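Hi D.,

Good news: the full-assembly prediction came through. Inputs first.
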Amino acid sequence: EVQLVESGGGLVQPGGSLRLSCAASGFTLSGYEMNWVRQAPGKGLEWVSYISRSGTTLYYADSVKGRFTISRDNAQNSLYLQMRSLRAEDTAVYFCARDGFGEFSFDYWGQGTLVIVSS
Amino acid sequence: SYELTQPLSVSVALGQTARITCGGNNIGGKNVHWYQQKPGQAPVMVMYRDDNRPSGVPERFSGSNSGNTATLTISRAQAGDEADYYCQVWDSTTAVFGGGTKLTVL
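Then the structure:
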């Protein structure tokens, strides 16, 4: 059974940093592109970042470019999102999502981890 | 940047057909994917590449995409279909989501 479990969320002050993790099981992470998607409270879905299977190709939403870094450790079956210079508008539930069809789509999602940026 | 437009809400009578649209400039030239999200839960993919159902999604769900509009059609709507639905495309180096449509089953 495919499972994605995010962790690392919490309360952080504006300007602070946080590192999110996503543990994958039930499939071999190295075979799939991965993404982070977020959802602010009461709002819609917003794509954050993409990483290719090998980790050599990275894409970011303009809203996080230069502040967030996506990475992966295929040997550990883990995906990461390093977040720096956090702002109030980064407050959201962060989901990791697998691209199972190679279509830049998201066939499996984790349950999400909540990040709150507030003083 | 590419934009996707969805109606804020759609209502459907129990057992009838609901159609949720997703508008975008020449969206027919892109692959459109759809997600269902129930309150407090993660999104679930219900359609990929316009008209393909992932395993486990009922045949009542179908999709189409042409011109400037993609459509998710839910036949014989059930109470359990009540949820938010999002369309999504990939544009250059960015994934784009529609604003979401709240489906109410009356």
